[in-house]
Amino acid sequence: MAKKVALMQGNEACAHGALYAGCNFFAGYPITPSTEVAEVLSNELPKVGGKFIQMEDEIGATAALIGAALTGAKALDATSGPGMSLKQELIGYACIAEVPCVIVNVQRGGPSTGMPTGPGQSDMQQAMWGTHGDHAAIAISPASCQEIYEETVRAFNLAEKYRMPVQLQLDEICAHMREPVTFPEPGELEVIDREAPTVSPEDYKPYDDSQGQIPPLASFGSGYRYHVTGLNKAADGFPTTKAELVDAEERRQIAKVMDNLDDILKNEEYQLEDAEVVLFAYGSTSRSARYAVNELRKEGIKAGLFRPITVWPFPDERVAELAEQAKAIVCPEMNLGQMVREVERVAKGACLVSHIGRVDGEPINPGQIIDRVKEVL
Amino acid sequence: MAYDYEKSIRPGKLPHIWCPGCGHGIIMKGLIRAMDSCELDLKNTAVVSGIGCASRLPGYLDACTLHTAHGRAAAFATGVKMAKPEMTVLVVGGDGDGTAIGGNHFIHACRRNIDITYIVMNNNIYGMTGGQFSPCTPTGAMASTTPYGNPDPTFDISKLAIGAGATFVARGTAFHATQIDKLIAEGIRHKGTAVIEILDDCPTTYGRRNKFRSVVDMMKRLKDIAVPVAAAAKMTPEQLEGKVLTGVLYKEERPEYTEQYAQVIAKAQGA
Questions:
Q1: What are A228-254's pLDDT values in tens digits?
Q2: Cβ distance of A55 and B108 shorter than 8 Å
Q3: Strands B168-173, B244-251: parallel, antiparallel or unpaired by DSSP?
Q4: ipTM of the assembly?
Q5: Are residues A152 and A278 in the same domain?
């Protein structure tokens, strides 16, 4: 039987990917350019018995998201720049309370209201450092409608597996462009659900890591009674100020991500084997970079593309190798220098790192990249 | 025989953090009696709070307890109830948490008429941070951030809840301890958003700054200002000056939010 193929926007692909992943709860607040995610799910979720709620503000949306997730729901929230800024406190809450959920940020121009209908990639460092306090983050930047669909499924998987919020860092171009999306068959993509506790309700401790870095999460209403708080807490979930317990918990919550990079990181490498100049690009900008690689190769310039799909945690190891291999790494991004900071940190001066930044609401075109590559070589 | 509160208290979690003379403990006991009289299954009861002294209450109860971020309790509770309507969802918190930073979530929970019971422990002050004025600090009163007297007008929380669409609104006081459980229980049994405002005292950060010489004085104030709704009906406006109505202030039947959404699901599924 032929698979279902549909022409759709990135935002629509995101909504359908969420449904494939088993998303059964959406809480959000209208904001351009993310609104289609909410519109599609308001229509589709009740068909499968799921719930859609439009909350009174962005903060309330993330609060409802976390509340629903604690009952066992697979919960999604979608927003853009200003909304993402508002959500930051509760993203930290989901980190420390270890509540699985997925938050989509369709990046637009900024700061503040900025350019609501223009593309941006200017919330990339926010995805890591937006909420206060030390914590780990997982963020994903897909570059096509098909990939948005599939990476939304993966975002849910990572959220469920690592018991934490996962951010999908789309950009307005990917979110609003239309491409054919092939719907995977049920079972074709892996779908992970959170691990439920095997101990009795009497013995359950929501942050007990004696059986592994990621303690199982019991759903509210499933027979387990426990406490959830945003305060630093001990294994039993109750607040503590004991230095050694606070320290161990904070470190575990970061280690559960950083010790599992093989599982969490995902990159695409294109023409990198003999590359003398590496383009480091993600999201819609990587499409221009790929075009630039092809054009440069036609002229005999050994260019290649490194495209992180998981953008946080940052792929330190592989970028460091590429910095050793290449004469230069060129980083085009629709901001004035965000992920290039990571490239520079990791390259440690092993090669030239050159940034192409654009914040005028226009995409970075291949010509800009080609020109820069020729300049630096 | 003395009432057995222990069965609803988490083992090992007492003593509580509240100051001597604070009414929060009286309200918690009322809440426990109410939960008991409604025969709530604590495994299927979520008690949600924000931040502040009152918001520490859920940790003492042996239920599914969720101590969230400042002001956001109603929104978290909305998520819990929406995702799992079969759970009983209670919210507890203070006046600042609920009506200042959390005001938006508070009024919208009321508007939706989602079946949660919100207990506001109104002690007229931000206690945990040391006594700054809240939206419920009386005009002219002293607080740590109103050294010349409070210039702000106040919220009447119960009126706010009625205006926003809550379908059950009641008010009690920490002095009238035996009434608290009855008001909360009626709120829990009510289908829809129920707001129970309990006037409370904070001797540590409010009383001392406002010439209350003792906790007894603060409790006497609660006793003196409270007028039951039925009694108030026979009083003149002059007699009611400075008084606060207590009892069930408002009640109506209106479609509950999760039931409304169940109809959305039925429509979407072509039923």
A1: 999 999 999 999 999 999 999 999 999
A2: yes
A3: antiparallel
A4: 0.97
A5: no
| pLDDT at residue A1 is higher than 90 | no
Residue B271 reports pLDDT greater than 80: no
Q: Which of A167, A182, A197 is the last residue of a domain?
A: A182
| Residue among B72, B264, B268 minimizing CB distance to A63 | B72
Provide the residue count of chain B: 271
Kindly write down the DSSP assignment for every residue of A93-160, as one continuous string. HHHHHT--EEEEEEEEE-STT-EEEEE--TTHHHHHHSSSSS---EEE---SHHHHHHHHHHHHHHHH
Domain that holds residue A114: 5-182
Q: What is the mean pLDDT of chain A?
A: 97
The token pair at B120 is 């506001």
- In the block, tokens 């005028």 appear at A360
**DSSP code, position A241:** -
What are the tens digits of pLDDT across the range B194-250?
A: 999 999 999 999 999 999 999 999 999 999 999 999 999 999 999 999 999 999 999
Query: What CATH number is given to the structural domain containing A363?
Result: 3.40.50.920
Residue of B nearest to A77 (CA): B79
The Cα–Cα gap between B126 and B144 comes to 10
CB contact under 8 A, B43 and A221: yes
Provide the CATH number for the domain formed by B6-268 in this structure.
3.40.50.970
